[in-house]
Every structure is written in structure tokens, then in C-alpha cells.
Amino acid sequence: MKVDERQFFRSIVYQFPGTEPLPSDHATDVVPIIFTLSNDFERFIIKHTGQPLQDLPSQEETTRIKEEVIRVSLSSLKLSSRRLEHRETLIEIVSRIYDHILEDRIRAIVDKIFEVVDDKLTVPLQPINVWGSNVNLSLYCSRPLTVPVDTIHLPFIPPPAFKTSPDFESSNLKKVKLDSLEAAEKSCVICIEDFEAGVQVVRLHCSHLYHERCIDRWLKKPSHICPICRSPILNITLGRRL
Description:
The chain is an alpha+beta fold. Helix content is 18%, strand content 29%. It has helices spanning 74-78, 83-97, 103-118, 212-218; strands at 2-15, 30-45, 58-73, 128-140, 174-177, 200-203, 209-211. It comes from Rosa chinensis.
């Protein structure tokens, strides 16, 4: 049975030297950098004592919600004289794509990009992949827990990364008035109360509906995701390729 749910942000930066290069009309010195944001749903089984029954979670579903590609000269990225300029550019790009995470995590991603750039095995034309994931982890246990859920420590979960900015208050979200009960959701999943015709509700970017008081309470959580589909509570239009 499910005993707990946790949300966190995970990122990885890597290059596979053996992969096929992206088509490019530029010089052979160019390296593509692919930025991706996804929603990941994972399952992890624990013992009734709170100890892991497996080493890592099993992945159940991944949904890609943003992707953007830039192409930069690899030799230019390696130059110490241009490092500050390139760093500021990458911080701006990472901040735009992963705009729901804390600044220190954004800078850590950029630091990791330069670690890959400076690696002797990194080559032009092969893409450098920057993958960020909003991970939605469900904990399962076959027996009733003998320890409080909030004491269970999972070492593979990174430090908190999501913003808790006032920008996420419901006053900044779209309000709609239900003139009829033809909406897909007949009730608010947070309070489990039915919607009434004529009531004003909050519609998220993913189109799911909630009572304003309920989503306000939900937004006090450190991870700002839709309670139904787990999409970030921000504009999730698919990113464009540059």
C-alpha cells in the first residue's frame, strides 16, 4: 500500500561520446547543448521499519514538457578568458528553462556543464545533455509502518530545490467561473468537495480546477506541482529549438 508521496528536483549533465551527432551547418567545433525538463513518476518500496527494500526507485512514467537546444563553439567554452561571459549566458538559459528551482541549484547545473566541457573526453558535434526532472516519488510498504513517515530518510533525494516564491500565490493564477458542471472535474481533489455552479475556481496551466482556498493551502508545499497531473504550476508550453 502507498504510505507517502514526495516531490523533488533532480538534474544530470552528460555527453555520450558514441552517440550520433545532431545535424549541423556550423563548423565542426560546435557542440549542441540540449536542455530538457520532464515530469518523472517513480515507485519505491520500503520495509515496515522504514528501511529500503530496494536500492533505487523504479521508474513508472516520464513526460517531457520542455526542450531547448543551443549550439556553441566548444573551444570558446573552454577559453578561460570567455568563461565568465559564457557562464552568464548559461545561467540565463538554465534560469528560463528551470524557472521553478532555487538559484543555487541553477548555478550547480551550470557548474556541471563546465565540468563536462572541460572533460578531456568531451568532443564537438556530440550533444551535451542537460536533463532536469520534477520527480514524483510514491513510497509503498506491504505492512503497516512501525515508524513515523516523516522520520524515513532516503539518501538518493537531493536537497530542496523548488522555489517558495509569492509568484505562486493563487492571486497570480487564472480564475474562472463555473457556469455549469460540464467541467471534467466534478470536485476539488484537495478538499474532495463537489464544485457548485457559479463558484469561482482556479484553473492551472494544465487546465485542472481547484477551489482558491484549497490551492492556496497546497501552494504552501515546497514543490509547486498540480495535485492531479504533477505538472509544474507554471506555463508548460513545449520549449522551442534554437
